[in-house]
Amino acid sequence: MIILKLGGSVITDKNSLTAKLDFDNLNRIAVEISNYLKSYDSKLIIIHGAGSFGHPPAKKYKIGEKFNLSNYQKKRIGFSQTQLAVKTLNSQVLNVLIKNNIPAVSIQTSSILTTNNKRIDSFNIDLVNKYLDEGYVPVLYGDVAIDKSLKMAVVSGDQIITYLGKYLNPDKIILASDVDGVYNKNPKTNSDAKLFKCLSSLKDLEQFDSTTNIDVTGGMIGKIRELLELSKEGVDSFVINANTKNNIFNILNDDEVNGTLITNKCNK
Amino acid sequence: MIILKLGGSVITDKNSLTAKLDFDNLNRIAVEISNYLKSYDSKLIIIHGAGSFGHPPAKKYKIGEKFNLSNYQKKRIGFSQTQLAVKTLNSQVLNVLIKNNIPAVSIQTSSILTTNNKRIDSFNIDLVNKYLDEGYVPVLYGDVAIDKSLKMAVVSGDQIITYLGKYLNPDKIILASDVDGVYNKNPKTNSDAKLFKCLSSLKDLEQFDSTTNIDVTGGMIGKIRELLELSKEGVDSFVINANTKNNIFNILNDDEVNGTLITNKCNK
């Protein structure tokens, strides 16, 4: 079984002022997934980010920040609006997948998951397994969640990956982003940025340019730390560029792709 | 706590050839719900039908009928399409509710429920309760489901009501339909149709005109049978006409409304 994460930056138009799907990119990716599934009877879970749909309302209503309970009603409306926004993206993603003959089934993350202080606290994945067993491609996504300490929080697609990676023991995890992999600096603004071909320990992370870590990676280090933890249990992850044609098909198909492998055993 | 069912005929345009929301009707109903919630701090669950969104794909792909497993892939696509169609309706409903300041949270039924031979087999309602406790209005809906014997089935809003009525012990159940209540004949085609003011036993059902039962009621008798079972446990149900202005507000508000009461104790 493979877990494929489609980053929000890959499937939505970040330059648009309003929530907008990057239809062309998503459709091309859907064709690649469909071609892979046609040839191989493999199980696949897709997780997508919230992109330009979820971030604006989550930011506007400060979902995940502490608040005074006298403002709870207003916050609830913000929660509802954010849930609806990411659900709208999810419907658009499902529409493209299904049109490409992928038997994709939406699993609304906020219907099966709660968090505690922004971390997944309970996650009922019974139906994720059932849909997989029946040959569907379950599609989960970054969503809002009821939070035990903060009342409400945002749960990222990345957290979902790590959780499913731990409990479903996939053959591999693919993180489809809009850059070629994990760099020591932001490759979009630093021409000397170095791509890591393979990461196998927290020590590798020391090569990150500490001054640019935060804006470069948007929490990339935390993500890699979690994927390194997973790699200790034998689950390898690949960070690849989904904007490069055939990358998704090739990585699904076990062909070589330029990118970063996160594993327990780099060949150095 | 109150459970309100909005029939598909109330919130979608049945005369439209394509899936179409009855925006005006839904918006008026949302205003009435919002006005009620403003005045009373009551818990509310909304369940809506699939109407002109769900029935065409479910019918096209014969969801819920036995099929040859060699056709499973085609059926899966039908399942996916039907799920997406009802989810689209659900998003449109949520949009109207939230715009009217109702803290509505969608709960995707097919993410938490399975059936066996078209009847609910498992239903994880933990999060329904959690959202209720946090002051949200959970919104569930008629959806597709994985079925233990038939592989896939349709689960109606009515089945969801009966299940939640049994396990959540609501103060009352409201079925908002497009007629004034339960009649012995189809009131739209029979000028002499008689409205039942109160139903308290299966014996009352003998007054139904047996020749017109099926097309009249679309399974109304089965539904009433289940609601009668619930009434034995003290949960009363009201069938009312949601197309009549203020009916929803009045029934939520415990004011008298023309309709059919299904209860253990009719005053005869």
TrEMBL record, chains A, B:
Domain (Aspartate/glutamate/uridylate kinase): residue spans on this chain: 1-241
Full protein name: Isopentenyl phosphate kinase
Amino-acid positions noted as binding ATP in the UniProt annotation, renumbered to this chain: 5-9, 51, 178, 183-188, 219, 223
Quaternary structure and partners: Homodimer.
UniProt cross-references to CDD domains, sorted A to Z: AAK_FomA-like
Record GO terms (molecular function): ATP binding; isopentenyl phosphate kinase activity; kinase activity
InterPro entries registered for this protein in UniProt: AceGlu_kinase-like_sf, Asp/Glu/Uridylate_kinase, Fosfomycin_R_FomA-type, Glu/AcGlu_kinase
Source organism (scientific name): Methanobrevibacter curvatus
A Pfam entry, by short name: AA_kinase
Annotated positions binding substrate: 50, 55, 157
Function, in words: Catalyzes the formation of isopentenyl diphosphate (IPP), the building block of all isoprenoids.
Annotated catalysed reactions: isopentenyl phosphate + ATP = isopentenyl diphosphate + ADP
